[in-house]
Amino acid sequence: MPITQINAPDTQSKCWAWIDENFEKIFLVSGLLLIILFITFQTTYRYLITHFSDTAGAAVWSEELSRYIFIWITYLALSVAIKKRSSIRIDIIFDKLPLRWQNASWVMVDTFFLILTLTICWTGWSQIERLLEFPQHTTALGIPYIIPYMVLPVGFGLMSLRLLQGLGRQVRICGLKDTLFALACVALVVSPVFVAEYIEPLPALFGYFVVLCLLGVPIAISLGLSTLATVICADTLPIQYLAQTAFTSIDSFPIMAIPFFIAAGVFMGAGGLSQRLLSLADEMLGGLYGGMALVTVATCMFFGAISGSGPATVAAIGALTVPAMVERGYDKYFAGALVAAAGAIGVMIPPSNPFVVYGISAQVSIGDLFLGGIVPGVLTGLVLMGYAYFFSKARNWHGEVRERSVKTLGKAFWNAKWALMVPVIVLGGIYGGLMTPTEAAAVAAFYGLIVGVFVYREIGFKKLFNCCVEATETSATIIVLMAMATLFGNIMTIEDVPGTIARAILSVTESKLVILLLINVLLLIVGIFMEALAAIVILTPILLPVVTGVGVSPLHFGIIMVVNLAIGFITPPVGVNLFVASGISKAKLSELSKSVIPMILLMIVVLLIITYIPEVPLFFISK
Hints:
This protein has helices at residues 3-47, 60-84, 92-96, 99-133, 146-149, 151-174, 176-195, 201-214, 219-234, 241-248, 257-270, 273-285, 291-307, 310-327, 332-343, 353-362, 366-394, 406-415, 417-431, 437-455, 461-494, 497-508, 512-529, 532-549, 554-567, 576-585, 589-595, 597-612. The protein is mainly alpha-helical. It is globular.
């Protein structure tokens, strides 16, 4: 037999394996790069090209086309997240289960997930049939609406396929007996929807949400499924509403700031930014007691002004500073705890994804929220630096002794100049009235891409491909959470849940001091068990009427909420910064949790200051 005939099946199987692994990723990379280019072009066109052209409205197509590409890559990226099982979820119970029942629980989770994706795929196709019968066209481009709406059957159909692939693998791991048990549990949870003739909307909505979250179903999917259950058993809305809202809730230009800011942070992190910022901070603070600890906090503050993400800041900076601290004699538990706490500053100092999510949820200016995060972020950084200095001095941990001068400081500034320009572009563009937050985010992502590829030359094709996939996957988990929270929130609005809760609390006390204290305690508890972004989209519509009822502005409350939930990044069992720091420092999570307690208490002091002295966080915001 010829060798070519023997190798042909093997080559064909490798080809199919490559397609299976990278099918969605090709569209994610090309889609993300296109929308970054389109929005950057739109921004530059407005200020440059219009001076040389009479066609002032020629770029209106860029925003519309970018929105539709953004929706497509968001739902395609969720397929990648499904394969990696990287969705946001509460896994407190899951972590305590033996391996056998953890495997069985994945069968349950994937089956619940599949129920929602198949439902939206089916109802999404009904939207396509409606558009075939009554064609409509977009405003700027004039393309048929059927093209962007096709993401509902295609995107959710592809998710269903990926879930079925995962279920197949999981069934082989679990065996028939455990799989049947898991499916029986799913049937037991679902049965009330079909057995009962009618269930009150609120028990159905909140009951299913709590049960599904405890079972480890991703929070976004729990929101969607609890809404679906309520729609079926309480007949609150037509079932087609799910698919329509899955599209319209993210067909929003402001939401696009999320993937752009994430991409900017990923590009700059991969492009060698971290080391240059670290060198600058070392020149400024490295010679003091606890020099490397102070450098760690300062670098986290610099990097937070670029990434807008706590875990990303810990991963990028901790990988450099924690080994250096341990090498210089610092306690590794202190080192890991400090970088975890300093990483939380990344969601306070602008740009910040939690501020973007809150701004969209509460209809508050994202630019004002960014300004309001500067003082709390800097104040938290200074408090952590003070603690690190005195803690290190008590243990005689000296800084590195070497020559430091104005010349070496100037050289470090010059080497970090490209990195330091990012916050200037973002904040200067927004507050100079040149760009919206979304446009500033796109320009920052474009800038980070150019610097990483052509200036620092540390991003090649493969790294660029992986960066784009990482950025789209991370943003998709956030955006789908917001889409499903819109479904959930609309049911709450119909049932007047926020108003009922506000009236109940205000009937007990109208003291602003007491209500803010109770809400802060609630948020600290929620932050222990729930990821910050999920808490924001779920709790904002519930708590906002309460605080506005006692005279707290939505802007001030947004700052309180984000700073409070930032503390949740370092409180187990869901403190993601602690998990990242634990991996970097090779330290047990339990020991890190003990070391971080003083830092948590100091951050709570900062929280109380910004809660009860609103002039502090609102210092930069004009009256």
